[in-house]
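Box S2. Input/output pair 1.
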Amino acid sequence: MSTSLLSTYDPTGFGGVVQEYLWQWENKPLRVVYETLGNGSPLLLLPAFSSVSTRQEIAGLARLLAPHFQVVSLDWPGFGQSSRPSIDYRPEIYQQFLGDFVQAVFTTPITVIAAGHAAGYVLRLAKQQPDTFSKIVLIAPTWRGPLPTMGANRLLAGVVRGLVRSPILGQILYKLNTTPSFLRFMYRRHVFVDTAKLTPSFMEKKWESTQKPGARFASAAFVTGNIDAVHNQSDFLALVQSLSVPLMVVIAESSPPKSRAEMEAVAALPGLRSVVLPGSLGMHEEYPAEIFAAIEDFLHH
């Protein structure tokens, strides 16, 4: 469990100092890549989980925050430049990883900004260890993976996950579901609002991140709901209500109806701040300036 310097610049990141955190899960070593930019009080910025999850998606937000904070972001295990072993990705892994990473990298309570599915892990850690965070911002928080959201039960989701994990058929299925045209279709459907931003070079970078060896394992776990930190709305809301630190929720105006309803259920709870901004589930990447403007006062006071 150590950290080491990789390089001072990395084109897949956001211009910060790139390091690796060496972590073990069940005696398997995992290399987790993380990046630090700026000076000031520490702030952990967590990308959303998705088939194309990397710290690059919060680059815009990281650069806006860096003049005010020391921003640390990462590639989740199984995604981005981090190790992608063929392990059974499940909530216990990410929960343990997040707790260990925060403990290894930070020495004081920190501000955390979490996008999408990262929300559940942050809330669970805040409940387990109330002194971990000083403030929490959740951007377009979600807790249910794509297949369960579409109505698939856990048995069907498990069958799909098993197929994608299988050696030959799994590789074929995964490639079909990560073609540039399919990724673009998904982005237009529920990730970005302005389709003019989905340029060929933008989509090619997303596609490249899905084609690394072992990429299908964590991706299949996300899509089938196997890394959902909670499994129902009442548990998610209970985690929010258990918080002892200030919380702000950013709602994506154009997110899919089910996801928007979940976000609004959180925002309706007493004692937290909320704001509705342009964007869908990828708002943290598409509208960083609007998000920064909306949360700046909360972060500083």
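Box S3. Input/output pair 2.
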Amino acid sequence: MFAAYAARIDAADPLSGLELGERPEPVARPGWSVVTVRAASLNHHDLWSLRGVGLPAEKLPMILGCDAAGIDEHGNEVVLHSVIGQSGHGVGPDEPRSILTERYQGTFAQQVAVPTWNLLPKPAGLSFEEAACLPTAWLTAYRMLFTNAGVKPGDTVLVQGAGGGVSTALVVLGKAAGLRVWVTGRDAAKRDRALELGADAVFPGGARLPERVDAVMETVGAATWSHSVKSLRPGGTIVISGATSGPSPAAAELNRIFFLELRVVGSTMGTKEELAGLLSFCATTGVRPVIDSVLPLDGAPEALARLAKGEVFGKLVLTP
């Protein structure tokens, strides 16, 4: 079957390790399902995999892709939950959890195999392309807001960084849930797009805000960390799910954190139950993922190059 896969690891030039070509079809085994992929979406995890983060060389070649929607062997339209081993189903109780492509072949292919437990019904109102955007970036945003931030309707949330898959999800989900959403970003065009999505206000990166916020959604890391801490009201919460600009800020701001009793909460992906909640939320409210572009599977190199350069607003989707 045709696939886009990591053939080599290169931390300095990750895209050089990407290849397109034929790979073995997945083999059915007890407790697992083979899904015909109708759409798969890109994540920064795919770039990190090409750099060797979470993907050791002995696992190569590895088909990339965490997220997908498709049709299972029984003809059901399904969405994949990409955290393998959360429950032990299909892998045994002692295997540590992993994200698809860290141990098992991914979704940038015509077919993918996952534990049957990891499949959820695709709501009829969502296209395959829309559903494929949800299991990583949108699930991450859903957990950040509704499980870890401790916010309620009417609260003000600051989203650091306009344009990425998680940040656009945070804007759309936050507005649908009755939050006041502010967004920062270096790019004026992306700030304008955030306003179109429903953000209540946008600001250049690092700008002084009109007032302190109840929670900050932090995915940028070192470049925005100090601003995030200084933007919080006393007792507020930073939820951090990534560090695309690096994990080591110049100052940890520890004095401000303990003196103002700020909460710093780490957030990674989400559970199958939270993904079911997100699917229901989208089906009920009419919220839909923001899709930048849909490309054929052989457009994976172009899509990953755009993602690496930050030339994206919303999600990039591949269709086999």
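Caption for Box S3: The longest strand covers residues 32-41. The radius of gyration is 19 Å.
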